[in-house]
Design goal:
Bound molecules: NADP nicotinamide-adenine-dinucleotide phosphate
CATH class of the largest domain: Alpha Beta
Helix content: 40-55%
InterPro entries: 6-PGluconate_DH-like_C_sf, 6PGD_dom2, ApbA, Ketopantoate_reductase, KPA_reductase, KPR_N, NAD(P)-bd_dom_sf
Pfam family, one: ApbA
Order of helices and strands: EHEHEEEEHEHEEEEHEHHHHHHH
CATH topology of the largest domain: Rossmann fold
Function: Catalyzes the NADPH-dependent reduction of ketopantoate into pantoic acid.
Number of strands: 12
Number of helices: 12
EC number: 1.1.1.169
Catalytic activity: (R)-pantoate + NADP(+) = 2-dehydropantoate + NADPH + H(+)
CATH superfamily of the largest domain: NAD(P)-binding Rossmann-like Domain
Structural class: alpha/beta
Number of domains: 2
Largest sheet: 8 strands, mixed
CATH architecture of the largest domain: 3-Layer(aba) Sandwich
Length: 305
């Protein structure tokens, strides 16, 4: 099997992973959206990583989805709403037994991807690292964090897992990746939409704790009905801890809205509401929150799905 890391999406996280893997001497190939993006990338001459005060450019080869050659290992580094359409385009190039590492936040996109690539192994990731694009092809590593990777259908550690530590990417193979993703989703549902509605940093929610607590009660019940009792443990306390620890930060959803970008709402709060409906659980607080958020996004002419 080829050991090349194909990386789809040279955005914030995709570039961060690509530069670190390339720096460690791993074979990396970027997969870009179309010929126009490929030409723009080639004119730039590579991806630039800014870490603290060090700026380094990496001349990583790139191609489009329709490029040549089979793909054995792919890091899917686009937003959740782009994941399944991107894999549908790449499907003809996926080798038998290809491994896909899915970096998407939230839940729902992983199943959509698996439907498009039924013969591939889908490895789910949950990342607390932070990166943002200062401009095209230039990424700033903004927050140290950690990555958990796991496969709900197969506990075996992939043979390439050691590449990550060799590249300085902090990561652990997780046997409870779904629990991690659900817990992160619940934290996100309790914090991010309210920061958009109240137009505040995370710490601003200290003035709305009864509302946050009510959401946590519904979310905990939902997690238990979805078979994720462990993800429900001490949720309200953890949400308050995160609000205090990140009081000066703006949530990712807040930042997306402020920048006029589409949010990943459908794979976060939307997923929670959909799973609750599937289990016949009434979640009036979450439903009301979703409706207020949809109205807010529509008033800003942003996609609300
Ligand atoms: P991003 O900066 O918007 O990058 C996404 C990239 O995907 C863009 O470069 C986009 O291309 C590319 N893309 C979309 N569809 C494509 C296609 N069909 N073919 C090729 N490229 C395609 O997003 P991000 O911040 O890295 O986030 C990726 C995921 O990681 C999200 O689910 C996010 O929630 C999660 N995450 C991010 C962070 C972070 O710090 N950034 C932290 C934790 C989790 P164009 O440039 O052409 O638009």
């Amino acid at each position: 099997m080829s050991s090349t890391w194909h990386i789809l999406g040279a955005g914030s996280l995709g570039s961060l992973w690509a530069c670190r893997l390339a720096r460690a001497g791993k074979a990396v190939r970027l997969v870009l959206r179309d010929e126009q993006r490929l030409a723009a990338y080639e004119a730039e001459g590579g991806l630039t990583l800014i870490e603290q005060h060090q700026t380094t450019q990496f001349a990583i080869p790139a191609q489009t989805c329709e490029g040549e050659g089979p793909i054995h290992r792919l890091l899917l580094a686009c937003k959740a709403y782009d994941a399944a359409p991107a894999i549908a385009r790449l499907a003809p190039r996926l080798a038998e037994g290809a491994e896909l590492v899915l970096l998407q936040n939230g839940l729902g996109s992983q199943d959509e991807v698996a439907e498009q690539a039924p013969h591939a192994r889908c490895i789910f990731a949950s990342s607390t690292e932070g990166a943002f694009r200062e401009r095209d092809w230039q990424v700033r590593f903004a927050g140290q964090g950690f990555n958990w990777l796991g496969d709900p259908g197969n506990p075996g550690v992939p043979e390439w897992f050691g590449d990550l530590s060799e590249a300085g990417i902090p990561a652990e193979w997780s046997l409870d990746i779904l629990t991690r993703l659900w817990r992160k989703l619940a934290l996100n549902c309790a914090i991010n939409p309210l920061t958009v509605l109240y137009d505040c940093q995370n710490g601003g929610l200290l003035g709305h704790l009864p509302e946050v607590d009510e959401l946590c009660v519904e979310l905990s019940t939902l997690l238990r009905s979805a078979g994720q009792a462990q993800a429900a443990e001490n949720l309200a306390e953890d949400v308050q801890r995160v609000i205090v620890a990140t009081a000066a930060n703006y949530s990712s959803m807040y930042q997306d809205v402020r920048a006029g970008r589409r949010t990943e709402l459908h794979y976060l709060l939307g997923h929670a509401c959909n799973v609750a409906a599937r289990h016949g659980q009434a979640t009036p607080g979450l439903e009301h929150l979703r409706q207020r958020l949809v109205d807010n996004l529509q008033a800003r002419n942003l996609p609300s799905d």
